[in-house]
Structures are given as structure tokens and as C-alpha cells.
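Study this fold:
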Amino acid sequence: MKHVILGAGPAGVIAAETIRKHAPADDIVIVGDEPEAPYSRMAIPYLLIGNVAEEGTHLRHAPGHFERLRIVVKRGARAASVDSAARTVTLADGSTLRYDRLLIATGSSPASPPIPGIGSPGVHACWTLADARAIAERATKGARVLQMGAGFIGCIIMEALATRGVELTVVEMGDRMVPRMMGPTAGGMIKDWCQAKGVRVHTGTRVEAIGAGPPLAVRLSNGQTLAADLVISATGVRPNIAFLEGSGVRCLVGVLTDEHLQTNVPGVYAAGDCAEAFDKISGKTIVSAIQPNAAEQARVAALNMVGRRAELRGVTQINVLDTLGLISTSFGDWQGVPGGEQVELTDRKAGRHLSLQFGADRLVGCNSIGWTEHVGAMRGLVEGQLKLGPWKQRLLDDPTQLMPAYLAAAQAQDHKALVQA
């Protein structure tokens, strides 16, 4: 059996290792489109801060790791097309790879906004090791840096830049920071926190054009033009799935999969940031581009690829963010559901905010700032979809009672399961 894995990120590596564990004699090939050894993009901010060297971003550190497992890693190779009838992948250099099982783990790439001057020297994404090298060269102490985007990834990059001692300006199109993760109150509190830490933040503002430098002249929709030594684009990402056109593999936002991570084409699977996986909790297929999802999806896909039936329990919808020391979280349907109820508790002076969203007698989503002691309970209630019973009203009256609510609901569920058994 020959397994071809497109993508050398966490999903691709974990899948390859899982296949090898359960299928010692099978052939495994990982195709990575960068010349680097397999690495984690999530480690790039730590590289920019200086906490790790480039080797510290690598997913596996033991010399000869992949060779010892007889996993072939093709670096600097990109998939150009897939012929699902012939079971072949054509690479950009014209060569082909035959497969019995194919895993699409190609991840995502930065979405470059259509701004005049976006391709100017000194404008970079922060996505690859090559990007990190270019940013490190310009983001020296006192350098004027403008970052487009204040989403989840943008805030992580912002933390690294602030640590380097740059003069940082952040421009976000949304009316608040982290708009896809936080409601208006929470997003506004994060903005206030960043500005108090010396970061200039423009929300509800677009970059309209970037004039060639040095320095770069960045024209904003609010009428200002700012000089910058470096511009970083962190305006979102999109799944790398264009090469699947004409393959017969069905794609919506990402590569559409079932609970086994298999696509509509037998023998073809997907995992990670490019996969649109079925979430049993919400009953929908979603792309949730976080590393814990990539790892679990890769494990489940790999088991099915070697004939060991496995199902994805759910797609984790969780984000925990450290923004210059301010901890915020987002779980599940944090915006609420039709017909649902909600409660909010805000203490701006203490830097705390809690927003709970209910559907029937379950907690379906929540936001928090500063409530670090409640993170486990929030995740347990949302992902476990535990019935709250009388605890729903207690939480509506006092949302800080998350831990006793979780313990009571979990015990009730365990008792019910024992009785049924």
C-alpha cells in the first residue's frame, strides 16, 4: 500500500507517523512545498521573539527521524493536480506520484488583500520561515512597523513584534480587535489593553495604498498616511485547495470530509487547515484552523487510511489568546444561536469580561477575558454539550458559577450513563 501525503506541516507529519505505527510495511511519501525541514508555523512568533532558534521550529528534532521510519520527505515540491481516477498526483515540476491512499494536508496560505503596492519591498506576510527571516532583518528596535489585521494570528504576531521593541501600529478593518473571536465588549477591551501597552490601534480602518519606500507610505481610509520601515499583512488565510480543481474531490470552504476524514472520493482524505470536517456538536462541517484539530484529524484520517475504522468526535472550536499578557478565550458559538439566551458580566477596571451563550439548556458558546480559572469548565460545558438543568438559571443569575455548574452537569451525565448501562 502506498500513501501519499500532501503537506509537511503538523497534520502531514502526524499522519505519516500514525500510518507507520499501524502499517509497518507500507510506503509513505510526504510532499512539502517549502525547502525547509517540516516545521510548525505556530513556532514562528517564538523565533521572532528569540525564544527558539530556527531548529526549534522543526516538528521533529532527532537526526534521521524520517529516514529511520522509512518516510520519504520530498521538500520544495508542490502538488499541481490530482487525477483521482488514475490515483496519481502531478507535481509542479511535471513528475507524478501514484497512490493507493491520498491525504490532503496542504494547510492554508495568507490571503493577500488587493491593495495597490502590496507587493512592494518591505511588505511581508508572517507565515513561513522565509517570511520570519525577512521580518527579523527589518523589525529591529525602534523600527516603524505597521501591521494589517488584528485577528487571532495577527495578535500573536503583534506580541512578537512588540517584544522586539518596534514602534508598532495595527490597522484592523473590523470595528474591534479579534472580530471573528470576540464580541464588541471583549474586542474593545483588548484594544484598550494594547493601546495602554504602547501599540497604536486603528479599528474600522483599511489600508488603501502602500507607496514604495524607503520609508513605505501607508495611506489609511481615515485620511492618515503613515511612514513605515516594514508592513506586515496578517489579514487572514485561505485553504490551499486550488490544485484540486477538476479532481472530483468536493470542496466548499475547504476540502469537504465526513466523520472519518474521507472525502467524496474513496481513498482520498483531508486533515488540518485545508479540511472542512464534520462537527457532531454543531451538526455542521467547519474549517477550524488550529493545531489541536490538525493533530486529531490527522490521527483519525491515518487510522482510516490503514483500515482501522475511526471517527472524529468533533471539531474543537476553541481559541485561547495571550495578547501582551491579557488572556482571552473563545469557545463554540460565541455569538449565540437563534432563540438562545445570553448573559454578560464585565469589570473593565479588573480587566475581566464573561459572555455566556445558551441554546435550550446547554452552553453553546462563550467569550472571556481574564477568567483563566474557568477555561476548563467552559470547554467542558461547550464541547461536552452537557445538559445544565437548574444550573442554566443559576448561570444566568451569576455567570461566574461555571465550575460548580460543570461538575454538577458532568456528574448528572455520568450517573445517567451508569443507569442506562
Notes: The mean pLDDT is 92. The chain has ten helices and 26 strands. The longest strand covers residues 352-359. The two ends are 41 Å apart (CA to CA).
